[in-house]
Amino acid sequence: xxxxxxxxxxxxxxxxxxxxxxxxxxxxxxxxxxxxxxxxxxxxxxxxxxxxxxxxxxxxxxxxxxxxxxxxxxxxxxxxxxxxxxxxxxxxxxxxxxxxxxxxxxxxxxxxxxxxxxxxxxxxxxxxxxxxxxxxxxxxxxxxxxxxxxxxxxxxxxxxxxxxxxxxxxxxxxxxxxxxxxxxxxxxxxxxxxxxxxxxxxxxxxxx
Length: 208
Known about the structure:
Layout: E1 4-6, H1 10-20, H2 26-44, E2 50-56, E3 61-67, E4 71-77, H3 84-90, E5 95-96, E6 99-103, E7 110-115, E8 125-129, E9 132-133, H4 137-149, E10 154-157, E11 160-161, H5 163-172, E12 178-180, E13 182-183, E14 186-187, E15 193-194, H6 200-205
Parallel strand pairs: 1-12, 4-5, 4-6, 4-8, 8-10, 9-11, 10-12, 11-13
Antiparallel strand pairs: 2-3, 6-7, 14-15
């Protein structure tokens, strides 16, 4: 699975440990999601193309660089919302569209209830954002929607994944790079990642 990149940065591993703890309250949890997202974004965008941009410094003109593509962020509601602002802080020109997907607790299959994509694909790179890649159903559904929409390049950014979710996503979409902070052990019988961190949406918004 060469398209699966798991961060080995010491700060990522440190902050991920704090994120997992039961005693981490929602405010601190959101802050850690923000920080981890920015680390993952850095690694996921190392291959972004650049274009020349002539500028003036206080001493002389110089040809600098700027990002040569338009980026779109596609957070999967609701847990993915916490990953948007930290990316916007670094890439303020990024577009943001929302996809509402939830897992049916009886079938464990994704159900789409909200889609705010514009009529035509107008970005070069879409980043699908979801802290947890469990069964992979929501991620696969999101990529399916984006490909039908016309997206040419898509990457998935998540904090923690289960092997089952990674396998499902890579088999359904072998062309999609997956960037993670951790690959955990397995899914339990309720399709939660073990050891994981619980429900990322509940823990971000204090609804658990």
